[in-house]
Design goal:
This protein is mainly alpha-helical. It has helices at about 1-10, 15-24. The chain is flat.
Length: about 25
């Protein structure tokens, strides 16, 4: 799960990625 968080932070659309991360 931490790996995905790191990728989401790198992406410009962190908000969207974070939301998906929480859903998954």
């Amino acid at each position: 799960m931490q790996s995905r968080n790191k990728l989401a932070r790198k992406s410009s659309s962190t908000k969207q990625l974070t939301f998906l991360d929480i859903k998954f």
